[in-house]
Amino acid sequence: MMRKKRRSSVDKSESAAPPDVSKSKKSRTTGHQSKTTAQEDTSIDSVFGQFLHEAGVILRQGSTSNEIAVDQVVFQKRLQQRLKKSPRYPSIVQEFITGLESHIEDPERFRNCLLPCVPRLIFLYSNQMTLYICLSIPCSAGEDGLNIPRVIVNQLKWLDRIIDSKELAGKLMQLVSVASVEIQCDIITSLPEILEDSQHSDIARELNALLQENTQLTVPILDAFSSLNLSSTLLAEVRVSVMATLSAVQLEDLPVVVKFILHSISPSDALEVVCDLRKKLELELCVLHPVLHASQSRMKSKGTTESSNTSASSSSQDSVALVLDGIKSAVRFQKTTSEAWLKAIENVDTAEDHKVIDLLVLFILHSTNANHSRRGAERVLKVKVRAGQIQEALLQKTFRGYAQVMRGYFPSILALAQSLLRSPDPCVVPFGGHMYRLSFTAFDSYCQQEVVGSLVTHVCSGVGGEVDVALELLCGLVTEKPSEMALYAVFVKGILDYMENLTPQQIRRLFHLLSGLAFGQQQQGTHIQDDMHIVVRKQLSSTVPKYKRIGIIGAVMVVGSMGASRPKVEDSQGGTLPKETYRQVTALLELVRSCSESSPEAAALYYDELANLVLTCTLDPLVQAWIGKSVLEDFQEDFVVDLGPDITGSFPFPACMMYNLDDEESQGGIAINLLQLLSDDLQHKGELWSQTVNNKTQRRVSPLCLSPFFRLLRLCEEQQHQGDLEEIDALLGCPLILTDMDVVEKSESLSKPEREFLCGLLFQTINWFREVVNAFCSQKDPEMKMKVVTRLQNITYLQTLLERTLAATPGYSPPLANFDGESTEVAPVSSSSAAPKKGKKKGTGKKRKAPAKNPSADSSQLEEGTEAEETQQDDAEKEKVQEATRPGVSLVSYRHFFRELDMEVLSVLQCGLLSRSLLDSELHSKVREEVQLGPAELVFLLEDMWRKLEFSLTAAPAKRVPFFKGKTDKSVGFSHLQQKSPKDIAACCVQLLPTLCTHLENCHNHFQTLLSENQGVVDASGLDVREHQLLSSAYQLLLQVLHTTFSWSVTPRHNTTCTLLPFRTVSSHFEYLLNFHSTVPSLSIALCLSQLLSTVADRGGHQATYREQTATLARRFLCQEWVTTSGDREKGPKHNETLQTLLSIYLEHTDDVLKAVEEIAGEGIPELLNSAKDASSRTWPTLNRLTFLVFYKGMMGVLEKAVRKIPPGRNSDNTEVMSEKLLTWNLAVRDFHILVNLVKVFDNRPVLNVCLKYGRLFLESFLKLGMPLLDFSFKKHKEDVQSLLKTFQLSTRQLHHMCGHSKIRQDTILTNHVPALKKSLEQFVYRVKAMLTLNHCQEAFWLGNLKNRDLKGEEILSQRSQGSDEEEEAGSPLPQEQSEDEVLAIIDF
């Protein structure tokens, strides 16, 4: 304050002092005074010293501060008055300044003048020259640390008056040009407080130029810029300059630069600035990779060098943290900045262009309190992850280099991970899992606890996909970080309270996780061992089947962890386990076995779980031996009998040996006594199974345990003999004691118990064969391979018998085959629901009685997805193949009652023609037997393969549990498959791709030969309908398997999947598959081929190259007439659904959508209207009156999508661009007019519903995108605009008539569309008026009343008195035939 007022008084004294100053005072001026060495300051004799003394300031020498005796205001007033009253005024002022200059020549005096007086600082500022002299003193600090230049600059701040501000600015900039960096920084940062506002623009330009020359001054210059009052234009110019220096800025200066850039943007240029900043901000270069940093540290000397490296790394992390803080403050307080960041990240369209800053900014945006930023960040992250543009590698790089910085955003990272993991979109779920895993490994213990707690919450949610991923993550963390996870074992143990909502596979994962923590080799979680034992024993002792199942699964998983093979210890007695641990394992196994004897279902589950354990775990040799020691003996005792001349016993049907594959003359053979098992089970039906088991004199065995027990036996043998099953190979070809299957032909004459017994016998036989195929499918011996193929033929034949038997036994409940789920979850369909399937299958010509000696003549029931072409056999064809036709039910609904086939069974597809020579008694070749996969067996294997791929590789949101959970669990029957990862399953499919292509070529060759023999006639006489159906099904299944394999999201695009095919490039893939189009026998197979081609092209990354070929192929299929083997045209709901998908593929891949729609609507539909009632269009044979709705809906939908992609018109568009957009809209409106007018002919409700729905959407798109174009192009293209509006008015009138029709019919489905459509019609009226007004042509517009009319244009009389809707083109009461003249009059420009 004192400095301000002194400056003011001096200025006033110079300008306002009276001229009559006393001459006596003038004589007292002594000029420059030399320095005195006296104790007291002799400068008091000068005018300067005398005036100060009289005004109240006493000057001191040495280190003593100057003193002020009066108040600052009084001192300033006295000094001013003293100068003005001097007779020598104004010359006395110069003498005063001269005295000042003399006084401050002494450094001690000068220092005292800069320091505060007692009690306040005294410093008199006179003019610019004095300041210049003061600043010329050397710049070093004094002995006491006083920075003289900084103190001098501080005196210049906040002055009340500046005589010449421009000159002052120039002097300051001169100083900046010659001073040291430290003084330059002080001066630059003080400029806003020294200069007046009028000088801000000029000084900003000079500082901007200085910034380009010297980046060392970046921080002070930007600090000054932030305090200067600059225009928006100048600020933008400065920001561009700052942005240009961004790459050269020091790391420690980067936060200031980023903060300045973000706080200087305006809403208009926010996106451009943020995009530029994002492009130039290379945070990857700011932080050294830890490995590189470590190597540098090792190369340098130890000690101080390492500490300096550590401090440098910490400093770089701090700088990055400050940069992110600057971004956070900008997005928090400026909505436009946060939106610009989101848009900038969203605009990046390739994974290579995404950088670490993108993820960090998304975390920042999510951490702000603004809801729009939080939701926007979550949305953008999901979109980018789904598109594969933000990948796991970028996430790992971010965590690896910026973990310290990201720790502050951990709550947002956790929330985003939770959201991704809960997403119904399966493509983003794994990314959320990676965020959890990296957070656990990179952050501190608090974060680890939060991660584990969140994952436990996911598991307890009960949502299928969410639970699976969370359990998988927890298991992975236990494997990677066992010691850290052991700290949180108590949290994980809490999941045991929520097992009711978990599936069997999830329960396995949970117990695997917990037992790994509690009983693993490192014994990290021993504190939960007792809890685990308590839970397992409690569940085992339960009488409720559900809890007993949980206990069996849990106990076996605990055995797997406790009994796992480990490094050998001293007291292991030949194994790798301590003696006490071995005792606990065997005791637990004994407990499980005793508890599971209470029911055959529990025993079968125990065998299955133990078999899975033997298959997946490497057990201790002693434990493995204990498990397998009695399996073989027990199996032989319970299920195997020796062959004899007669079969004794009381059975419901005559007993006989069936399906013997061994030599008939061989002696000492064995057989599976299945008939006896089922008979005994039937006799003891209703008795408690445990009572019979405890009877030592007669041990009862359930047929349910046959297949599970054999699976355990087989796996134990494989483990013991390294995959060789020679010890039990007799079970592959041994016969079964059954009954003659001719009884199936008389099933309708049997009693209900007999039919049910027969069904049970067939189910158990099929399941035995399926388990036998599982066991021996991988054997290399040719004879065994032949037997495996023969067993597959047995299965397909028996399934046809079972279909007919089930058809005659309504309400039958089959025996369980999968024991890890609720029995109610696999309940069969009721007889009422089976009846339609029975009728459908009756017309498929699939069930045929085959001779018992040739059981391979028939095959399994086809899947739902292969039934489209089979449901259309007409009566004549049915009669023709009556001998080969039997009624039956679909086995699809009974799939859960069959044993699961292993993935290894699919290797049978690679078997070609198998043969062997049978020898007579003299060892001479007697006959040569040949076996190969027939069409029925091929379809059977492909059906199973496709089901497996659909379950494992098709990531569908449907896996989420609905609100009302269905009765059927889709995972039942895939227990073994769930033990494998999707990657392993995909690898298995890749190995089979050459074989699948071979089968595909065989199907192609068959149909090609068929067409050439019959001159292209599909329904030729003498056609083997059964073979045609089977090979058609195989054809379709092969394409579906290939499509599912190629569609898998994790399949590599260029190597793993494609290189094993008989071609190398994507072009070769495409051309290879394209060759199959000529022999496609049905529309459903044509659709599969089109989808496969589209997927292959997409995997190649050059989809645009093949779009035209895909569209041409789809058009060819649409222009082809599809008939069944009976000669009828394909029809039905499935046909329509297939046709709709194929039409969408054509319209989506064609280059010109509008032209394609016009071609169908302008050519195909008129041909249909001019044809007979049951005929179809000549150009488009698939278009008939039954499929019109399919074509109409497809065209309306794709037309609405197409107009949404037309870019909106802009005033800046040149004439050529504007004309092109206008032409596109003319074509679209013309197509729309054609489609809307079709409702006059096809006026049924579904067509009207489609027209109302898509008509409103088209109108809204026209208002949003088309009308701005008309605004700008009206003057230059008046005729085109006029034509477009005339055509569109006709369409809107028809839409209005449809609204009236819907109301008068009082159809709720149609009237739901009316309010929104009428609102859009009204908006269109006023939008056209606004367009005409904008172009000064409002006289061409007039408004009238549009009467309510029906579809035929007749007035609705009942609504004559009601208020009518407004629309510009139809206000005239003229008759309908004058409507065109009416339109022309209205739009007469």
How is this fold's topology laid out?
Blueprint: H1 2-16, H2 23-27, H3 47-55, E1 57-58, E2 67-68, H4 72-85, H5 91-104, H6 107-114, H7 128-135, H8 148-155, H9 165-178, H10 181-194, H11 200-213, H12 218-227, H13 232-244, H14 254-263, H15 270-280, H16 290-299, H17 304-333, H18 335-347, H19 356-367, H20 371-386, H21 392-406, H22 410-421, H23 429-442, H24 445-460, H25 464-480, H26 482-486, H27 489-493, H28 504-519, H29 529-540, H30 545-562, H31 579-596, H32 600-616, H33 621-628, H34 631-639, E3 640-642, E4 655-658, E5 670-672, H35 674-683, H36 689-693, H37 706-720, H38 730-733, E6 736-739, H39 752-776, H40 782-807, H41 831-842, H42 875-880, E7 914-919, E8 925-931, H43 935-952, H44 982-1013, H45 1025-1047, H46 1066-1074, H47 1083-1099, H48 1103-1118, H49 1133-1149, H50 1153-1169, H51 1188-1204, H52 1215-1237, H53 1245-1273, H54 1278-1305, H55 1308-1311, H56 1314-1334, E9 1344-1346, E10 1365-1367, H57 1379-1386
Antiparallel strand pairs: 1-2, 3-5, 4-6, 7-8, 9-10
Helix pairs in contact: 1-4, 3-4, 3-5, 8-10, 9-10, 10-12, 11-13, 14-17, 15-18, 17-18, 17-19, 18-19, 18-20, 19-20, 19-21, 19-22, 21-23, 22-23, 22-24, 23-24, 23-25, 24-25, 25-28, 28-30, 29-30, 30-31, 30-32, 31-32, 32-37, 34-37, 35-39, 37-39, 39-40, 43-45, 44-45, 45-47, 46-47, 47-48, 47-49, 48-49, ...
Biased composition (Polar residues): 30-40
Keywords: Isopeptide bond, Nucleus, Ubl conjugation
GO cellular component, one term: nucleus
